[in-house]
């Protein structure tokens, strides 16, 4: 009887769509960790593990934002610039003496506004997401540059110590706050995606936008919401970046949108929409983080490092596209 | 290509196939979107190809076509070979019973109901050039068929009623209340349901599971006030729909793409049954599905009729329309050109109305 | 139709912004008086006046400053120096650089745009010492005078005003070595956080730094690259600390902030040496997180470079081919 229960428990897990890929990628992750650990045992030290997970948290957060957008069949290229915009606005306000929490609130409002614009450009103006978010990407980066008159900011000062501890340096119950933040973001958004009506609509739109419309899904609303969610995630990571550095830098977040795509795609979220679960994004983010961290401990020369990371990403995206469109072809016959 | 109507697309496909100088030609449901004239032309081509020595494998559900072109008949069922015989050595009923595995008593089960009160009133509806000044009524206890040539505007009419195409002018009155339909959600909330013509493109999210497809338009009733889906209710809904419609599936978590055409159509329709719909629109519901499944769809329509739900039935297969409807509206070029009660309806009369094109003004000849 | 129009507009905007990838700062026109009879202040040749007055084309000279980006304090200060000299000399002045950061190709575009704009001389901080040779050759043929500031390219120019980066790197290394000796540490691991493998200036700094440690019992780990971004550099430095490094060297402004923050978080035992000056770096030096930082003299580079340009354009003595503007070691005040 016990055997049967164990078997059906596992069967239920595998039956969740998307779990197959998650399990495969998790195994790859475990192998990777073991290899890095063998090359340099310092990789497994408690200090490094805790630093590593803290480094993964921001990748996971923007990965979650990008995953929401990818599942609807769209893409968000403005993530990196929004991180920069959030970092610069919050830091600039803080250097001018504004309370860090008020600064954060103002930053959130501004950046969510940007997300709203991206969302409306795609859903109402019907611009291709690539072009729409390329536009907001450029504008957001521009705002990041003029926020402090084309300079990086000064240090945000002693008054921001609480802010910096909250987002990065502090620990709660022995675990870095950043890790808790990442965990809470994951649990919250995973719930929305898997258990709410909006989550169902998100998958439906990504799967078949026509059929969704004819089933009463409000495509404009849902599409806009995912861009706002993505903007929220980018903003949060921007605040974390300000906390990390203790200043605002105009180049913060450069290239993050592609890291976010990589983490999502490695975890099984398809760039063609309608597929993937956030647990996959978690694993994808860990793969990304472990690669970055482990290659340093392995003493790999830079050339190898870039090649390895590049190959992993390209292979993941290729597999995604080949498998998905192969399946689509056979379904259309 | 996407600008061509489905029938023209099919003609291009056939032409493409003929260009290849192949020895064997396989045609899979080639006539499903063709008009009778085009079908005649196709049969002529097939017969001449036969004379030239081509081998043709012709896959169809439309058994009435066989007598024009078939020499041998091979029957498959559930993925297995059943039998193969010369066409002249067999009869249609024998073919049908081989296809289904059991005897079908009636091809078109018809039931009689008393006509109840008026459900839907459409007045002077205009929605683009294929829906012009449409007016008709729909009552409880009846199935209203919409016949016409391909391109007559029937699908466009259903789309307008469902809020998928913009309405320019006119009124839609449901149970005495005037409706303001601008998007599908308006129609759905008012109680109008629609099983669209192209089920793969418009009816189903093909990569989502059966369960997710069935629950999609029903999420409002499956969620609590915070928008959280009650997963048990969802499972129950899927189970009861699957049972009611006899949907054959391995589990309700299977992807919709893995179902047969007939079962897919049942999922498309099944989604709407849980809602208290007042009108259900079927657009070409039996296209591309096997005989047994067709009968189940007809039974479903009859069941709705019995429950007092208005049924709009668009089809290009005249026997089907004549077999199931109580009243028939015929459309041509966006207008309703005729209304026939079933007692007086014949194929010829329908054809006559369907070809009543508007006289166009010709300025050229006169000096 | 509307959607197509909007797409086209956005794409056009994109292309325009990429062409203007060379952002322009405000231009100063040095048109104080029509007759520029005053000699440049550091004139070493009294016979200049004759050549000036014989210049029948009494045009306003246009001099461009092309840096690596518009954001680093380093270039901002250099612009200030150049601008001041331009004002004093009555020269028309424009500052430009790739808006997207250290981008070789974009900087080539900036050079071409400057030439097309009618620049008489260019002060260039080259991002691509070998790749820009052809472009500079063309510019030179067009009569444009070339002066290098901060980073030379491999095309002969009138003068190079720069920090001797290798020497500065050595100074940094010496400071670290002495500090370690003073703590009684004579062996251990040392980490370098560099920017990328292409930027000559930072590569030379690393070279100089490494020279100092040759023959000692210290082991320098394989260099990691943080792209000059604070959070990336900080992660790298944190990992170095986990590995047990006793000293870490940051080769430019962003890298140094990251290194300092990481050392501060770990408790401050590690010896950190930085490069460049900024408010954040000074704070880290004063708090003890960084031992010291090598402050360059970008102001001098800009100021003196502009003077050399003027001398070159007016036929005066331009001075030595190489001017080392030096570094000052900034320690805790």
Write a brief caption for the model.
The complex is a heterotrimer of chains A (333), B (367) and C (333). By secondary structure, chain A is mostly helical.
Report on the architecture of this protein.
- The complex is a heterotrimer of chains A (333), B (367) and C (333).
- Chain A has a two-stranded antiparallel sheet with strand order 1-2.
- Chain A contains 14 helices and two strands; from the N terminus they run αααααααββααααααα.
- The longest helix of chain A has 31 residues, at 302-332.
- Chain A is globular, with a radius of gyration of 20 Å.
- Chain A has helices spanning 2-15, 19-39, 46-71, 79-95, 100-123, 129-146, 161-169, 177-195, 197-207, 209-213, 219-245, 256-266, 278-297, 302-332, and strands at residues 171-172, 175-176.
- In chain A, helix 3 packs across helix 12 (256-266).
- Chain B has two domains: 6-100, P-loop containing nucleotide triphosphate hydrolases (Rossmann fold, 3-Layer(aba) Sandwich); 118-354, P-loop containing nucleotide triphosphate hydrolases (Rossmann fold, 3-Layer(aba) Sandwich), CATH 3.40.50.300.
- Chain B is built from 14 helices and 14 strands.
- With 333 residues, chain C is an alpha/beta fold.
- Chains in contact: A-B, A-C.
- The interface between A and C is large, with 41 and 45 residues.
């Amino acid at each position: 009887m016990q055997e049967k229960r164990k078997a059906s428990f596992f069967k239920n897990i595998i039956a969740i769509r998307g779990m197959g890929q998650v399990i495969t990628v998790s195994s790859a992750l475990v192998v990777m960790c073991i290899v890095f650990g063998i090359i340099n045992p310092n990789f497994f030290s408690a200090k490094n593990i805790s630093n590593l997970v803290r480094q993964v948290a921001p990748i996971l957060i923007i990965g979650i934002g990008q995953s929401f957008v990818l599942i609807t069949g769209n893409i968000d290229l403005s993530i990196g610039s929004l991180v920069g915009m959030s970092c610069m606005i919050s830091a600039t306000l803080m250097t001018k003496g504004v309370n860090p929490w008020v600064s954060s609130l103002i930053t959130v409002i501004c950046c969510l506004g940007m997300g709203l614009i991206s969302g409306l450009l795609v859903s109402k103006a019907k611009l291709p997401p690539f072009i729409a978010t390329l536009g907001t990407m450029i504008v957001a980066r521009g705002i990041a540059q003029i926020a402090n008159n084309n300079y990086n900011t000064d240090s945000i000062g002693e008054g921001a110590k609480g802010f910096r501890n909250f987002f990065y340096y502090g620990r709660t119950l022995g675990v870095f706050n950043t890790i808790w933040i990442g965990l809470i973001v994951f649990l919250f958004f995973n719930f929305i995606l898997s258990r709410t009506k909006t989550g169902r609509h998100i998958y439906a739109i990504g799967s078949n936008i026509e059929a969704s419309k004819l089933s009463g899904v409000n495509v404009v609303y849902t599409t806009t919401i995912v861009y706002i969610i993505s903007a929220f995630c980018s903003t949060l990571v921007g605040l974390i970046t300000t906390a990390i550095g203790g200043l605002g830098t105009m180049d913060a977040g450069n290239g993050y949108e592609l890291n976010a795509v990589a983490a999502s795609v490695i975890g099984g979220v398809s760039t063609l929409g309608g597929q993937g679960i956030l647990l996959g994004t978690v694993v994808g983010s860990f793969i990304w983080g472990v690669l970055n961290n482990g290659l340093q401990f392995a003493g790999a020369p830079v050339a190898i490092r870039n090649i390895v990371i590049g190959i992993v990403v390209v292979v993941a995206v290729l597999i995604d596209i080949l498998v998905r469109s192969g399946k689509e072809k056979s379904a259309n016959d | 290509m996407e600008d061509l109507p489905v029938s023209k697309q099919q003609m291009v496909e056939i032409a493409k196939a003929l260009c290849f100088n192949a020895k064997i030609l396989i045609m899979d449901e080639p006539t499903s979107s063709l008009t009778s004239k085009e079908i005649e032309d196709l049969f002529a081509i097939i017969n001449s190809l036969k004379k030239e020595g081509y081998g043709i494998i012709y896959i169809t559900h439309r058994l009435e076509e066989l007598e024009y072109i078939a020499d041998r008949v091979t029957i498959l069922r559930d993925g297995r070979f059943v039998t193969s015989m010369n066409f002249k050595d067999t009869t249609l009923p024998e073919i049908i019973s081989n296809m289904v595995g059991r005897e079908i008593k009636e091809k078109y089960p018809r039931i009689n109901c008393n006509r109840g009160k008026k459900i839907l009133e459409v007045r002077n509806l205009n929605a683009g050039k294929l829906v012009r000044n449409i007016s008709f009524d729909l009552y409880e206890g009846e199935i209203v068929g919409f016949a016409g040539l391909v391109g007559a505007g029937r699908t466009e009419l259903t789309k307008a009623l469902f809020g998928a195409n913009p309405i320019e002018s006119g009124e839609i009155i449901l149970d005495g209340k005037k409706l303001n339909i601008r998007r599908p959600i308006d129609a759905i909330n008012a109680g109008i349901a629609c099983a669209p013509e192209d089920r793969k493109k418009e009816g189903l999210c093909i990569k989502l599971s059966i369960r997710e497809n069935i629950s999609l338009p029903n999420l409002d009733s499956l969620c609590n006030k915070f928008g959280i889906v009650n997963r048990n209710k969802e499972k129950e809904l899927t189970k009861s729909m699957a049972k009611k419609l006899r949907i054959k599936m391995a589990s309700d978590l299977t992807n919709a793409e893995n179902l047969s055409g007939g079962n897919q159509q049942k999922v498309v329709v099944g989604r709407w049954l849980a809602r208290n719909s007042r009108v259900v629109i079927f657009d070409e519901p039996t296209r591309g599905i096997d005989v047994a499944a067709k009968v189940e769809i007809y039974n479903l329509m009859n069941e709705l009729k019995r429950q007092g739900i208005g049924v709009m039935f668009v089809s290009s297969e005249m026997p089907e329309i004549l077999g199931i409807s109580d009243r028939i509206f015929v459309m041509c070029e966006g207008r309703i050109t005729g209304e026939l009660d079933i007692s007086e309806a014949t194929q010829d009369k329908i054809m006559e109305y369907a070809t009543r094109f508007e006289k166009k003004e010709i300025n050229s000849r006169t000096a | 139709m509307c959607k197509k129009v909007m797409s086209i507009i956005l794409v056009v905007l994109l292309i325009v912004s990429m062409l203007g990838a060379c952002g322009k700062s405000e231009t100063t026109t040095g048109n104080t008086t029509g007759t520029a009879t005053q000699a440049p202040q550091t004139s070493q040749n009294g016979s200049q006046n004759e050549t000036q007055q014989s210049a029948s084309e009494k045009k306003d000279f246009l001099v461009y400053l092309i840096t690596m980006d518009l954001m680093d304090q380093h270039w901002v200060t250099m612009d200030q120096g150049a601008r001041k000299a331009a004002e004093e000399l009555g020269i028309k002045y424009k500052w430009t650089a790739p808006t997207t950061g250290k981008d070789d190709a974009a900087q080539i575009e900036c050079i071409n745009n400057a030439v097309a704009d009618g620049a008489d001389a260019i002060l260039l901080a080259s991002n691509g010492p070998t790749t820009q040779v052809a472009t500079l050759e063309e510019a030179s043929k067009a009569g444009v005078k070339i002066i290098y500031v901060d980073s030379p390219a491999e095309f002969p120019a009138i003068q190079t005003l720069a920090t001797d980066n290798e020497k500065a790197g050595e100074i940094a290394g010496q400071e670290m070595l002495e500090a370690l000796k003073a703590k009684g540490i004579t062996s251990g691991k040392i980490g370098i956080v560099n920017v990328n493998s292409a930027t000559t200036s930072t590569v030379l700094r690393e070279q100089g730094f490494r020279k100092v440690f040759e023959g000692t019992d210290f082991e320098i780990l394989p260099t990691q690259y943080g792209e000059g971004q604070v959070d990336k550099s900080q992660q790298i430095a944190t990992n170095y600390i986990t590995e047990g490094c006793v000293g870490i060297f940051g080769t430019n402004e962003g890298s140094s902030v990251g290194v300092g923050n990481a050392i501060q978080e770990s408790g401050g035992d590690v010896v950190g040496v930085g490069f460049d000056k900024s408010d954040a770096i000074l704070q880290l030096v004063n708090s003890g997180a960084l031992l010291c930082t090598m402050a360059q003299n970008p102001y001098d580079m800009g100021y003196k470079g502009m003077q050399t340009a003027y001398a070159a354009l007016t036929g005066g003595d331009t001075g030595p081919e190489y001017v080392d503007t030096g570094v000052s070691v900034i320690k805790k005040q």
